[in-house]
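step=encode ok
step=design start
structure_in=
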């Protein structure tokens, strides 16, 4: 060993790599599970959305949908297309770029307050799954509704 150079422990690097690999695999499995649950519950989610505000605006403001898509969805609502049907079309588009941050916006305290039927759907995402709760940043559904 050269003088003045720190000694590197290869075992520590291997353990760290294993932990990173395990965490990465865990995140992939969790993402896949949440995506599948999202896809299977689009109708229920859309049915809970009863009016465009704040659903469409929060998605536009956070760049989940473009201004052009926002205008198209708003126009559809204005043309008397039922809001849940428009919401379903939005969710179909969002499915293409699904992310955990989308779920955080979808189940934000603002949306949970505006659309109370979303609470039960959020509970289905979190029910019995501590990993989902941690990943989505919720301690409990009830506390997420009351926190801003």
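sequence_out=
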């Amino acid at each position: 060993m050269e003088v003045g150079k720190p000694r590197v422990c290869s075992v520590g690097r291997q353990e760290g790599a294993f932990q990173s690999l395990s965490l990465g695999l865990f995140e992939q499995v969790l993402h896949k599970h949440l995506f599948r649950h999202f896809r299977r519950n689009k109708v229920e989610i859309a049915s809970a959305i009863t009016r465009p505000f704040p659903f469409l605006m929060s998605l536009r403001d956070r760049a989940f949908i473009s201004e052009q898509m926002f205008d198209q969805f708003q126009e559809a609502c204005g043309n008397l297309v039922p809001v849940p049907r428009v919401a379903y079309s939005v969710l179909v588009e969002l499915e293409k770029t699904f992310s955990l941050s989308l779920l955080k916006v979808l189940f934000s305290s603002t949306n949970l307050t505006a659309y109370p039927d979303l609470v039960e759907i959020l509970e289905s995402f979190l029910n019995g799954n501590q990993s989902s709760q941690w990943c989505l940043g919720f301690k409990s559904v009830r506390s997420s509704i009351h926190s801003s």
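step=design ok
step=annotate ok -> DSSP finds ten helices and no strands in the chain.
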